[in-house]
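Key idea: predict the complex, not the pieces.
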Amino acid sequence: MNKRRLKEKLIEWLFFVNGMIAVLVLVGIFILLVRNAFPGFKEVSFWEFLTTSRWNPDAYDKETYGFLAMLASTGMTTIGSLLIAVPLGVGTAAYLSDVASHRVREIAKPLIEILAGIPSVVIGFLGIVLVGPVLAKLTGTYNGLNAINGSILLAVMALPTIVSLSEDALNSVPRSYEEASLALGANKWQTVIKVKIPAAASGIIAACMLGMGRAIGETMTVLMATGNAPDFPQNLLSSVKTMTATIAIELGETAYFSTHFYMLFTVGLVLFIITFFINLISDIIFHKHMKMLK
Amino acid sequence: MNEKSIKQVLGFWVLRLCMGFVALILVVVFYDIITKGAPAVTWTFLTQSPREGMTEGGIFPAIVGTFLVTMITAILAVPLGMGSAIYLNEYAPDNFMTRFIRMSIRNLSGVPSIVYGLFGVALFVEMCHFGTSIISAGCTLGLMTLPLTITASEEALKAVPRSYREGALALGATKWQSIRTNVLPYAIPGMLTGAILGLSRAAGETAPILFTGAAFFLPDLPNSLLSQFMALPYHLYIMSTQHHNITLVRPIAYGTALVLLMLIFLVNISAIILRYRLRQMKKE
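Result:
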């Protein structure tokens, strides 16, 4: 009997250790990023990194590691993508939850999943061969590899997240809200706009934040489609080099454990911290929302 | 028609347009890749190595590389994901620690893929001395897939009715016996499908393998887990941005994109069929 109990305890303990893996990986990522980021600040001042915009690790006389240009580039492509993906995504979610017939929904949902399953490198490739030439013609630029192109592709990448989570939020609105609104004489459209979307607002905001986290962290699409000029972006037609693209391009070219290597880990650390807090806040909002509606 | 219903008709059409636009994106993506990629995909394309400075020949080594890396990913991610899910669904008490674990899983799924790449360089390439290799890339992708496999496995476990567990416990089985004999057999089809879907996602990833083992061009197939490898998504990236004659190799890039896309969908569809079959078997 005792042996059996011991075995049970042992098994439970093993599963607990296994269950901790996610925490372990998350903490591990943070620690290794910090460990490989900090030595860079022996050579580069923290102040220079945070307040200047010139990132020039190959300079002949003095290398500079200013971070602002790539932060602005990431911000620009991300905001551009949200301007496209949020209205489109929330509209699609509202369609799926309130307008579409059961049959249409059964077809449309797998379609959204398929969209989510397309690898980012394929979307990036289409940015070069499809979106680029169209943009070049419309705007009279050379190859259409610029911030707008990146924004369009990032919108495609963020859409599935925004659609499916916004739809969950809309579906979680209790039926009684809807019925009360209809009983008061509102039609379906008024109910969607004035009752359901406001009631689901926090969930939809959480969904959009998660989509934003995806857009900030996306690498291949922006790497391939934004042109990667290291200057501070002037406008949406500028060629930009985001934080993710900088790491992707430069880590392969630099010597391990050089200042440049450490500074790229610093960029990764900043990226990790930004997405961590966006995900965390989105998570908290989403769970508060679900609890409130229960 | 009064103003109220006109607004409704218009409003609904706007929503339909949104949906239509999303569907259009999908159609355009597939139409372009299939029509331009299909002519390039021949038997020799699938079975030969690149030749003449990668302007001719096929993508066989990239297919092999992607397959090998995905195997390593599976070996790491599937058991760990299942174990985590079993803990969370069967053993975990409802306390702060468990909520913390769940929060970590959700947060982990939002960590940018390039950050996983950096993590892979620091942990597997450097600390474990695996160098840039199949095993480094596979492990990096494995950790990246973990949140997906955990969530999918937990869904599968949740679908098993409580009464199955209680029946076994009431007959005097221990907790682990009840899980092993009365829960897992019913949950495994769902767990496997979820795992395969997660792996197909990993197979299409590029950023995490950029510095952990993917190579521009290799004359030979990898001969050990410590070799570098060519991979389909990385090959597409190279062929569309890094090659010295981009326009000349455009058909090869399209062909690679089509093969990658088809591979992912074949895997997805087989996972769904597998789930269906296993469910039918259970019913009999």
